[in-house]
Amino acid sequence: MQFVVGIVFRLSPAPPPPRLKNVADRTIVAITGASSGIGAVFARKLAAEHDLLLIARRKERLEELAGELTAAHPTHIEILPADLAEESDLESVASRIRGESRLALLVNNAGFGTKGLFWEADLASQERMHRLHVMATVRLTHAVLRNMIARDFGGIINVASVSAFVRSPGSVSYGATKSWMTVFTEGLYLELKNARSNVTMQALCPGFTYSEFHETMAVSRSRLAGPRFWMSAESVVDASLDGLRRRKLFVIPGWRYLLLTTVLSKLPTAARLGVEAAAGRAKLARQLHD
Ligand SMILES: NC(=O)c1ccc[n+]([C@@H]2O[C@H](COP(=O)([O-])OP(=O)(O)OC[C@H]3O[C@@H](n4cnc5c(N)ncnc54)[C@H](OP(=O)(O)O)[C@@H]3O)[C@@H](O)[C@H]2O)c1
Question: Domain total for the chain?
């Protein structure tokens, strides 16, 4: 894809080779949560110019996607079926990417949501969410960064959410873990900037996006928000790749979400908490009907 090719061109210490038939010369993009939604779209948009490591639990889905993409592009695809909330699977993925000298981009995208009040919701799924959104992001980012920094080349996209900027009763762990992802990404951006590294960090913060996310949560999309607030996964990924080319730290696709996050962050704390409490009450009332 042009956008990442753009960054690869700009970050490469030497001029990049022209498109080669030998797949060993192509750079690799690793995508977690590639079996559906936003992750699968990243894979579809990047397959033309990169080899791919596709990571998720559903092996058949990854095989299906790999078949589709290798039929359409001269790409080499490796699938890594893994539950990233499980230590042994996480470590095997980290080991695979740790020494990969052709890795140009890591997309930490795997994630899920839960509903209900924190103290009523299942503790195991809250803890899984923290392991997936926080610990997997830490492990995989650490696995690739030293190598990228040594080569002064590459990028990491952490798929957070607009929820990172909104305290949300009814999805407290989700907002907290996504908020952590943005602060983590921002901190790394500063470390890399101070180190004068060309390695790029991005926190991608989508709002409501068509994918399997809400089916998995068993919530009705139409009850969450009107059609104008829903974005396609394609438009989210296009915004992310465009932001990567321009080295944007925060990418918040869609003007409505940009406005919402800007206004909320400017409100005095008491006013913001008032707005968030009211929105949370409405959300919990809707959840009762799902
Ligand atoms: N859709 C939205 O409205 C929205 C808004 C803001 C942010 N996001 C974020 O966008 C990211 C992608 O979500 P999506 O909207 O594309 O939803 P999705 O279609 O449900 O995709 C989620 C992906 O994560 C993978 N995944 C879930 N748990 C996993 C685990 N334990 N180990 C490995 N992979 C796991 C799933 O694959 P398997 O089930 O095969 O493992 C799937 O590929 C998530 O981080 C989500 O929080 C989504």
Answer: 1
Digit-coded pLDDT (tens) for 133-175? 999 999 999 999 999 999 999 999 999 999 999 998 999 999 9
**Residues lining ligand 1, judged by CB closer than 6 Å?**
32-39, 56-58, 61, 82-85, 109-112, 132, 159, 161, 206, 208-209, 211-213, 216
Dump pLDDT digits (tens) for 56-70. 999 999 999 999 999
CATH of the domain at 195: 3.40.50.720
210 is catalytic: no
Residue 128 CA, closest ligand 1 atom number: 31
252: containing domain: 2-289
The model carries a pTM of 0.92
Strand 103-108 to 155-159 pairing: parallel
Ligand 1 atom 23: the closest Cα is on which residue? 33
